Every structure is written in C-alpha cells, then in structure tokens.
Amino acid sequence: MKKLPILLSFSLLTLSSCVFFPQVNIPSGSSIYREPSYNSNYTSENLNLYNIGRGSLARAVYMPSKGSPKSLVIPVEFSDDKFTDIELERLNYSLNGDSEDTGWESVSSYYYKSSNGLLNMEFEITPVFSLTNTVQGLQNSAYQSSSTDVVISILNQCLSVLNDEGYDLTQYDTNNDGFIDSVYLIYSAPYSASSDLYWAFTSWNTEYDYSLDVQASSYTWQSIDFLTDGNYASYDKAKNGDAHTIIHETGHLLGLDDYYSYDVNGIDNFDSPCGTLTMMDANIGDLDSYSKYLLGWIDPIVITEDLISSNNTIRLDKSSENQAILIPIYKNNQIDFNYTPFDEYLILEYYTPSELNEKDSLTPYDNLRMYTEDGVILYHINSRIGRMDANTFGVPEYSGYNYDKLPLYSEDRQWGRNYVFDYIHSNTPSYSYETLDDADNYYRGRKISILGSNETKTQFSLGKTASNRSLYQEGDSFYLENSTYNNFIFDDGSAPHFGFRITDMTEDYCDITFEVI
User: Fold this and answer.
1) Cβ distance 95 to 205 under 8 Å?
2) How many CB atoms lie within 10 A of CB 502?
3) DSSP 165-176
4) CA dist 79 to 83, 133, 142, 347, Å?
5) 145 CB neighbour count, 10 Å cutoff
6) Contacts 24+ apart (CB under 8 A), 494-498
7) Which of 256, 249, 183 minimizes the C-alpha distance to 216?
C-alpha cells in the first residue's frame, strides 16, 4: 500500500491529559435508588447510549449501532518495525472480508450477523503513517506522560496530515453529529500484556483540532499481531486473520463496557461476574442478549402478570424476535420497569452452539470454549443510571438518585459542567459509584452477572469460567421449590415476582413456563 509522504514526528510538548470524570465509591447501603423530581423535559427517550457519560469536558461519542457507519482505519508503523504487504492485506480482509475470507469472521461480517443485519460496517484503510520513533522510543515517551496522551497525539497528527492531503474527513461522520464514527489506529509493533502502550485499548479523544471540519472522539489502538493470535489464523494465507480482539474493541466503540472485573485479586477476588463466555468478557462467541438490547438490536419479551395470565409458557427460538425474555422487578404487585436497558432486571437468552458461537464452541480460543450444548443463559442486569454531582474539588459523587428519564441535553446547561449521568454500577467494583457486594447475595451491585443453573455466582472466581452446567435445560428452574436461587434478591432489596421452569427443549426452541410467586 502506498505510504503518505509525510513522516510523523512525536513531541511530548504537544501533550495534555484526557479529562474524564473519575469514578468513586459510595459506602454500601447509602441509598436504595431514590427517585428524583422530574421536570417536564425529562423523558425516557433521552435515556440512551449517546447520553451516558456525556459531558462538555469528557464526551464519549459512540459509533452508531445501526445503519452503515464508515470507520477510518490508520496503519501506524515505526522506524524500526515496518508493515509487510501481507499484514496490510490481512488487515483489510479481517475488517471488510466475508466469513469465507477469514479464519472465523471479519469485523464487518460478525456485526452484520450479530445485529441481524441492522449494522453494516464499512472500513476504509488509509496509506501507512510512518513515525520517526522507534518502538522503544515511543514507549519511553509513554513513561513520561501516559499511553493515552501518546496515542491521542498520534491520532490528531494523523488527522491533520489526512486533512492536508485532501481527505474529506466528513465522509466518516455518517450520522452527521460532528464526529468521525470511529478511528482504528493499528500499530506495527508486537503487543505486550505487560505494557499499557503496546496492548489493545479503546478511549476517547478530548484534544480536538478545531481547524478540522469534523472531530475524532472514539478511537481504538491495537497491534497488527492480534490478527495472528488465535487458532483460526492461517499464516500462509494473507486473508485469514483472527479478528476476535478487534471485534471486542469494536464493542467498546459502540458503547459497551468490559464485563470482566479489573480488580483481579482486589476487592472480592472474583474475575468475571458473567462467567467469561461472551464477547465483551473474554473476546469469545456472540454478543450476549444484554449487549444487543443496549445496542437496539433486540426487543426482549417483558414478562408481566397480564402476559402470562392466559398462557404462562413462552417459547424462545433462534429467530431475532424471540431470542430473549426480560423479567422485571415488581413492587407492591406493580411492575417497576422503565422499559429501557437502563434498569435492573433478569434477562434470559436461548443459546445454541451455532452461527457466531459455533467456531468458538469447537475450537478453543485462548484456552476457552463456548458452551457446547443448547440451553438458556440467565443474567442479572443492573444498569441503572444515576446523576454524578461534582463536589467542591470537582470530583463526581453519586447523588443517590436513580434516573428512569433524562432531560434534553440542549436545555440543561449544568449537564457536563456540574454533573453527568452515568452507570451506578460496573462489573469492576472500584469503578462503581456504589458497592453492594455481600458474600451471600451473589455479586450485588454488578452491571451484568450470570445466574448459572447448577452453580452460584460465587463459583466464578479467579481462573474459573461458566460451563455447560451453567445452562438451564429441560427440568431446570429458577426461584421455585428446589431451585438453585431460592434466596436471590435484587439489588434494591426486593424478591423476584416470577419464577420459571424449562418445560421443553429441542434443537430449535425451548419452552419456559412462568409462575407468579
């Protein structure tokens, strides 16, 4: 591939830190989600991924999850580590190729299938950008500042050069929000798990170049060597790259979090509340139903008393319309659910080792395999949104209020200045604004955690994963007599209003019978 004639130089003098709202813990039991007072311009329609964490100083602008976003891909090489033609060809196939062009799926084919055709991604790869730095030289620069500072400087210099070379950067802003949908910076050096710089990460740029017609917010930085990391890459064929890592990072660009805990050997010594076997945890298999709900790809069946009064058996099958069931919280015999993904509930999905799960169920990826049997996966979700108010030191603190609606951003001058709206909980306790963990209560206060059929969540400790035993199969039940989770409670302290039993299961569907408790 032709290289741009301008060599990028790197200078620490141009760097400044990214401004993000830090996360702080509030003592357990400080609140049980008090309801705020809403003004007339508050609506649940504003409760969406675009507004979560949004602020004037730290604006995480995500890639559109529907339509045909166009991503900008910039290969970045070092003075002592150059791309080969085969590597660049493999990159193109791994991003844009069909399934048969890759060792598994390309990024484009994966998300097209996972979204049931709602997301059709396109990647345009620029000529290679050559740094004057050596691999070690850039690492030394990161030691003096930070990895994100270094990468943001490279990102902005690349955009400036592209603009000067006549690239129309606005073509990469397909939703016309003033931001490039996403930028992929692929570096030529080998990755290292011991390096913050030479690893794969996704972040957001706040050092805008206002001389450009469009800005870059979300970007990912990762090594070309990740494409030859797994068991599906055929190194004698340029097109057969392994896209697992870049697919995972793309999930972040869409607005999804990591579902494993960063606090390894930390607060609770647990590594993975959701059991590892999903794309946003261990880079494996299809996206889970919660992620698809967040991205607007599925609309789960919501269990209510009225729904099951005439027929209490619901069928899940492989169709996009019937892939997931949502069990909401009931209080005082009334449903307590805001009908958005940003609430607390249980979600069931019908899993089969087919389609995007098939290859990872047959071939180990990083010593992990997806479930090899059909069954139902049950997740406990707590993605409630709270308002984080800046204290006198400018540090955000959780207000104790749970928001089922948000105001219009354009009509709230304090939003992003004095407070932001963000997730109250994370799968990493130290990233949560409120911690609720209790040894007897199964990862309370986590965003997504699995309730295995024959296992408790506390069994998913460091080094352990979910397994076929975690799947609900015919005869298994939840919150009924002799069920595994008879003592389960929601994070708000309420008990489930519904229990269920798997009453029939075939290769194509499963029937789930619900009971009011």
Assistant:
1) no
2) 22
3) TT--GGGG-TT-
4) 10, 6, 17, 50
5) 14
6) 494/329, 494/330, 494/331, 494/336, 496/327, 496/346, 497/327, 497/329, 497/330, 497/333, 498/303, 498/308, 498/327, 498/330
7) 183
C-beta separation of 269 from 460 below 8 A: no
The string of DSSP codes covering 434-463 is: B----TTSSSTT-SEEE--SSS-GGG--TT
C-alpha span between 131 and 34 (Å, rounded): 52
CA distance 196 to 222: 11
Q: Is the dihedral of CA 407, 411, 414, 419 positive or negative?
A: positive
Please tell me the distance from the alpha carbon of residue 472 to that of residue 371, in angstroms, as a whole number: 12
DSSP one-letter code for 231: T
Comparing CA positions, the residue from 340, 298, 304, 348 lying closest to residue 319 is 298
The answer for residues whose C-beta is within 8 angstroms of residue 138's C-beta and 6 or more apart is 10, 78, 131, 150, 197
Q: pLDDT digits over 91-105, tens only?
A: 999 999 988 878 789
CB atoms within 10 A of CB 42: 18
Ramachandran angles phi, psi of 244, nearest 5°: -55, -50
**Of 474, 234, 238, which is closest to residue 375 (Cα–Cα)?**
474
- DSSP 8-state code for residue 51: G
Residue 458 phi, psi dihedral angles, 5° rounding: -65, -10
C-alpha closest to that of 91 among 214, 6, 187 = 187
- Rounded to an integer, what distance in angstroms lies between the CA atom of residue 400 and that of residue 385? 10
pTM over 0.85: yes
Tokens of 352: 């089969």
Work out the number of other CB atoms within 10 angstroms of the CB of residue 200: 17
Q: Quick check: 162 and 109 in contact, CB under 8 A?
A: no
Report whether pLDDT(233) > 70: no
The per-residue pLDDT for 408 is: 86
pLDDT band at 7 (very low <50, low <70, confident <90, very high): very low
Q: Are 155 and 216 in contact (CB under 8 A)?
A: yes
| Three-class DSSP category at 480 | coil
